[in-house]
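Lest this sound abstract, we let one protein speak, letters for residues, whole numbers for local backbone shapes, and leave readers to judge:
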Amino acid sequence: MTRRDLLASAALTSAAFAVPAKFPKGKADACILLWLGGGAAHIDTFDPKRKGDGKKVAGSYYHPIDTAIKDVQVCEHLKRTAPLLDRCALIRTLSHDIVSEHGAASNLVHTGRMPSGTIQYPSIGSIVSKELGTKDPAVPSYVVMGYPNITRDPGFLGAKYGYVYLTQTETGPNGFVRPPDVDNPRQDRRETLLAQMRQNFEDRHPQDQIVRAQSAISSQGFKMAGPKFVNVFDLAKESKTIRESYGGEFGQRCLLARRLVQSGVRFVEVSFNLNFLNGSGWDTHNDGQTKQHLLIQDLDQAFARLLTDLEESKLLDTTLVVIATEFGRPPEFDSGGGRGHHAKAFSAVLAGGGLKTGQVVGVTDELGVEPVGKSVSIPDFHATIHCALGINPAKNLFAGDRPVPITDQGAPLRELFS
């Protein structure tokens, strides 16, 4: 036995006999992640400070307003969200060390880990997909509204726990749409032939897990091409009043997210990447800052309506809604009137999911630069989300023979649980 074999054996033995950690559990069985890619300014949204002048005087860009939580304020452009904040928990002291790279920071927030040269870690959506499984084989367990990106990938979990993505809310995934000249009998013949070929290939490669994963996802794809999943994308089935209440394109994505959760999808990521609204998206360098309010108002309308819609549909207690971004922005303004990047302290929002809401976790200093007291790490943030969904954050997954805990020693925020 080599030294490497001995160490691997010891690790496996330890993992096999490890006592599962006790962890708090929420009531959620699905999660909607609203992703503000680019780095949303915490001091201009959920953690307002004294007002700056947009030039030399550091501070928030907007006035604050009161909320449903006593003595807690948010930005004036979150006027619809403010009276609903008792359904939310604000985390104001998220922190990590990646400031310069959007991609690396986004990867960290999605996977909970720094990149490794030997392993590709799965995204939080893929982990939820694996741990909770599917509610219905006719719908996927994981959907991303936005362009495909490695930070959302299943990593070592394999293709079975990957996502279905779409860029248009009106049509759904184009790959599930059958050509008009393929009727039901012709489709049945195609699937029968493909099943025979697939089985023959699997029989020739019985130990190849990649082959089996691709085969499984292919089979599931045909089920998802059926009417149940495709009909989810028909937003016309909703009343005009409801559609209009959600607002523009981002709002329609949030409406679709509610419909996806209702259909049985476990994890939905909704990317807010409408750069044309202010010219820069949430990466508010230079002139992007002056029209940032257009993004915040869009977020406010869609998020507030999503919360009330889930509540009216009796889904809010079982659906965790998360607002997250890769980092925040500093209180100072750059030479173009915008803001740079800031990761020492920034904000996230958790709503519903059976959590103890109506509270704020963490306090930042007078300009939102650093936490006052304990910060919340990204692994802690992940552990909290997993616990809300009934997933043990300390459980081992396996990359081949290598045990990998679901979170990197993350500890859930216990004050959010009963």
Notes: The longest strand covers residues 88-94. The two ends are 49 Å apart (CA to CA).
